Amino acid sequence: FPDSFEVGDDGVCVACHGSQIETVHHCDGCDDDCDVAPYRVTFHDGGGEVVAYCDDCASLARMDWNGETAAIVPLTL
Fold first, then answer.
1. Is the pTM of this model over 0.85?
2. CA dist 38 → 4, 35, 75 (Å)
3. 49, CA 20 to 30 Å: which among 3, 26, 28, 70?
4. Which residue from 13, 38, 39, 8 is spatially nearest to 25, judged by alpha carbons?
């Protein structure tokens, strides 16, 4: 197995198609080592990304602070 796995736009590992998921502990919101879960963020311009958030950062991200976020939903892998 490779040292790391790329997660595609659907939130699934492109190498194993979700049969093995890399353990992530680093939150993209607060940059702390904490319990995180994957979320799909969709922007008003139609773009989007998959991020890892802890519960607190996911709650904060649901507020459209910058006028760009259309939706944020948890991903089930």
1. no
2. 16, 11, 6
3. 3
4. 38
